């Protein structure tokens, strides 16, 4: 069984197999993609460990929701112009006809939650099939390795668009992982007067500055941080949302991204009302946020490749899960190559 022909199947938490991959043919309106690279996030580790909330995962499943690749076949009704194109694709399915979809909030589709790599087969396999309408095409010379990070970039874009920063704003991002740093890089386009990244490790200071931060603080050195116009919580830890409110000026805006960690502390509603704070959330990314992220990538305003520290083969899936949760600040994003 060759590495090239293998796929990961998670039968249950911490129970996986490497199986011979049998490509599925593209059906009506679908496209088949040859996977180039798959990024691994905290969400993938949560699926592996059984920590993802029940409505948002279904076993057995082939994981992999951050990916890039090349279209190799299209089904009836799908554009033939997609053949041979480099692409990334939205994971969340949508009906395009319900009220949220018509409003542009395709990630809030009322038909129900279905997502590549969580409830539907993902990209930790040589090929992936999905509706062609969910694909976003890239330039012929696009770096597909870097493009594998456009899914977290789209989620970061959703948070930035929800935050609505104005030029000259004082902005803070909580979290120095991929989501936080990609959000910081996108925020630079709004020319904030100050862009502070708050993380847990001093080792992330230089990288944060390369992604546009004007300052970097760890929580033990965060005393005095206050009066920010906008704060994006890209950490999602048990205490980050509550801590984020303390960084805002009266009338400031907070955006929470992703699914918070289990046991997360609540936000004091009295403080929210008395200080007239605005709180928004971003789960996944709408088609518009995807387009924004892909456009920024194509314009070289997003440079996610620097986040990668490890590239592994698909048969090193278990090691990739261990590295993702090891807590070593020298370990950044990990890519699998099916």
Structure description:
There is one protein chain. The mean pLDDT is 94. The longest helix is centred in the middle third of the chain and has 14 residues. This protein has two domains: 181 residues, Alpha-Beta Complex (Quinone Oxidoreductase, Chain A, domain 1), CATH 3.90.180; 129 residues, NAD(P)-binding Rossmann-like Domain (Rossmann fold, 3-Layer(aba) Sandwich), CATH 3.40.50. It contains ten helices and 15 strands. With 338 residues, it is an alpha/beta fold. α4 packs across α5. The strands form three sheets. Strands 3, 4, 5, 6, 7, 14 and 15 form a seven-stranded mixed sheet that branches. A six-stranded parallel sheet has the order 10-9-8-11-12-13, sandwiched between helices.
Order of H and E elements: EEEHEEHEEHHEHEHEEHEHEHEHE
The CATH architecture of the largest domain is Alpha-Beta Complex
What is the approximate shape? globular
| Class computed from helices, strands and strand pairing | alpha/beta
Distance between the termini: 13 Å
The CATH class label of the largest domain is Alpha Beta
Which key terms come to mind for this protein?
single chain; 338 residues; alpha/beta; Quinone Oxidoreductase, Chain A, domain 1; Rossmann fold; 2 domains; six-stranded parallel beta sheet; 10 helices; 24% helix; 27% strand; globular
